[in-house]
């Protein structure tokens, strides 16, 4: 396909595609003349991934280049590449100075038997949540963690099954990225529905 068709199918303007080509985020097409190149479905998949990283993930061009470098490393497993993408789209570090919250998070991870080091974003984010809970007087909030862990383990299985069904590593990483945003929004919506349903059942039984 020509670059104009690549733009139409991807939804990315041609000037932006040319910019991505100059920055090395998209491999060059096959030259058919000095000023014309042909692109394939592989270019289309890569372009969609770059678009997702930039527009949904909010990553800088330099960060996108790092993610794509991990993707193109033949020695890097999908598991490690997924970790690279997840780390790249994680929000900035949070304050983890609260020792009580830090210990609560450490004990939780240990109970689950999970390999989640204290310097990982997920661990720091949990410390931040527990710190906030204590600051607003919700000291029993930490008791919910094990229940959340059981539910989230099932969600993680669903997420992984979805990603592993992708045809290529590019598509799998695009699924991880999109799932981070779409999945979180979906969980929030379905959780609200379920909470309403459970609340109505309790109200009916009490009536």
UniProtKB/TrEMBL annotation:
Q: Where does the record place the HTH merR-type domain?
A: 1-70
Protein origin, superkingdom: Bacteria
Q: Which UniProt keywords apply?
A: DNA-binding
Q: Is Cytoplasm tagged as a keyword?
A: no
UniProt-listed Gene3D superfamilies = 1.10.1660.10
**Name this protein carries in UniProt:** MerR family transcriptional regulator
Organism listed in the record: Saccharothrix xinjiangensis
């Amino acid at each position: 396909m020509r670059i104009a068709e690549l733009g139409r199918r991807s939804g990315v303007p041609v000037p932006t595609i040319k910019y991505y080509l100059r920055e090395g985020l998209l491999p060059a097409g096959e030259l058919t003349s000095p000023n014309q190149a042909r692109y394939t479905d592989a270019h289309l998949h890569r372009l969609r991934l770059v678009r997702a990283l930039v527009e949904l993930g909010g990553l800088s061009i330099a960060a996108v280049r790092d993610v794509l470098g991990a993707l193109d490393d033949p020695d890097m497993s999908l598991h490690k590449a997924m970790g690279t993408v997840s780390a790249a789209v994680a929000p900035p570090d949070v304050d983890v100075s609260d020792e009580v919250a830090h210990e609560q998070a450490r004990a939780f991870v240990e109970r689950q038997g999970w390999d989640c080091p204290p310097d990982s974003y997920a661990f720091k984010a949990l410390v931040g949540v527990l710190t906030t809970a204590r600051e607003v007087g919700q000291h029993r909030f930490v008791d919910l963690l094990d229940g959340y862990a059981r539910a989230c383990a099932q969600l993680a299985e669903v997420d992984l099954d979805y990603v592993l069904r992708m045809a290529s590593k590019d598509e799998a990483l695009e699924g991880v990225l999109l799932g981070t945003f779409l999945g979180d929004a979906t969980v929030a919506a379905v959780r609200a529905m379920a909470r309403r349903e459970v609340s109505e059942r309790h109200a009916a039984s009490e009536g």
